[in-house]
Design brief:
- This protein has eleven helices and 13 strands.
- With 328 residues, the chain is α/β, with parallel strands linked by helices.
- The chain has two domains: 172 residues, 3-Layer(aba) Sandwich (Peroxisomal Thiolase, Chain A, domain 1); 146 residues, Thiolase/Chalcone synthase (Peroxisomal Thiolase, Chain A, domain 1).
- The strands form four sheets. The chain has a five-stranded mixed sheet, with helices on both faces.
- Strand 12 and strand 13 form a beta hairpin.
- The chain starts with a strand and ends with a strand.
- Bound molecules: coenzyme A.
């Protein structure tokens, strides 16, 4: 019997209606459209507004659409993984809430962290359950409500992040699907990118709220350098392991962190930008949401058998690349 691959057989996404433009940010912090555009490539991002609206809201919208467009009975889903760093609650997991609201009664569910690499790590994890033959239908979500952990008085972070969610269905395939992944972590990266309070090290208190410690802390320059190095080296590893040259790859799907990071990674891996998916100008960095949101947006342009390399870098540090053959 031949190998069983975990193939993406459908993709869906959701972004909130509210558009936070660079012009509006100019009224909130000392910044301007020209600086943001030149330094990041971002023109606008989406923000989930409304009382008690969490990450699961966006995940539910994406998954409902995914189930509908793939004509899938929710009770057939075996496993739901949600990559996120902005879970609705510390517990239960957001994947749990999404499964309940979408009628996926027979699934087991869990969240996976890994920050901006959350979707890539979740995809590789979910694929194992299909490749082993144990399960037939797995949903992998990347979703983050970054606006819930952003200090809108900090101009170095509030311009970058946005809210959004994407989801894919994984099913067995004998020809196409996820071929290979190269994933890495380096915990020493905590110094440059983390959220100080709200976890067990520094639980929420009046003091942590007053000190604005429940938000993203970032030292941008080292993160930038590590991101370029991490994603380009992961792409190189995956290409070498699978005897791929740049001409063999139809699309590179990079995490949308900064247009200058994406361009540097493309240059180092010898990919023309025409074959690199970029939508950062519209959505900013939605953390675990960026890669599935790109796949969702480019779905119509993808053909069965296309070679795709997905790559991400995030807090942790975490990074990696996945080589897959598009299955439909
Ligand atoms: N508007 C205007 N000026 C700003 C600004 C803003 N929003 N944010 C910072 N500046 C200023 C700084 O204060 C600094 O001024 P100074 O020279 O007077 O001190 C100057 O611009 C340069 O700041 P610096 O931080 O060196 O800019 P940069 O070119 O490194 O760009 C980032 C900052 C955050 C855009 C960039 O470092 C980056 O994208 N890093 C990676 C972030 C990332 O991808 N994170 C997610 C990882 S998955």
């Amino acid at each position: 019997m031949g190998k069983t691959y975990a193939a993406i057989t459908g993709v869906a996404g959701y972004v909130p209606d509210y558009v936070l433009t660079n012009a509006e940010l100019e009224t909130m912090v000392d910044t301007n459209d020209a600086w943001i555009t030149e330094r990041t490539g971002i023109k606008e991002r989406r923000i989930l507004k409304g009382d008690r609206m969490g990450t699961s809201f966006m995940g539910i919208e994406a998954v409902k659409d995914l189930l509908k467009k793939t004509n899938t009975n929710p009770e057939e889903i075996d496993l739901v993984i949600c990559g996120t760093v902005t879970a609705d609650h510390n517990f239960p997991d957001t994947a749990n809430i999404i499964a309940d609201k979408c009628g996926m009664k027979n699934a087991f569910t869990f969240d996976l962290g890994a920050a901006c690499s959350g979707f890539l790590f979740s995809l590789t994890t979910g694929a194992q359950f299909i490749e082993s033959g144990r399960y037939k239908k797995v949903i992998v979500i990347g979703a983050d409500k970054m606006s819930s952990i952003i200090n809108y008085e900090d101009r170095s972070t509030c311009i970058i992040f946005g809210d959004g969610a994407g989801a894919v269905l994984l099913e067995p395939d004998t020809e196409n699907g996820i071929i290979d992944s190269y994933l890495r972590s380096d915990g020493s990266g905590i110094e440059f990118l983390h959220q100080k309070a709200g976890g067990s090290v520094l639980p929420a208190s009046h003091e942590t709220v007053d000190n604005k410690e429940h938000v993203v802390f970032q030292n941008g320059k080292p993160v930038f350098k590590h991101a370029v190095r991490g994603m380009s080296s992961a792409i190189r590893e995956v290409m070498k392991n699978n005897n791929l040259s740049a001409e063999d790859v139809n699309w590179v799907v990079p995490h949308q962190a900064n247009i200058r990071i994406i361009e540097s990674v493309a240059r180092m891996a010898d990919f023309p930008m025409e074959r690199v998916m970029v939508n950062i100008q519209k959505y900013g960095n939605t953390t675990a949401g960026t890669i599935p949101l790109c796949l969702w947006e480019w779905e119509d342009q993808l053909n069965k058998g296309d070679n795709l390399i997905l790559t991400a870098f995030g807090g942790g540090f975490t990074w990696g690349a996945t080589y897959l053959k598009w299955a439909y």
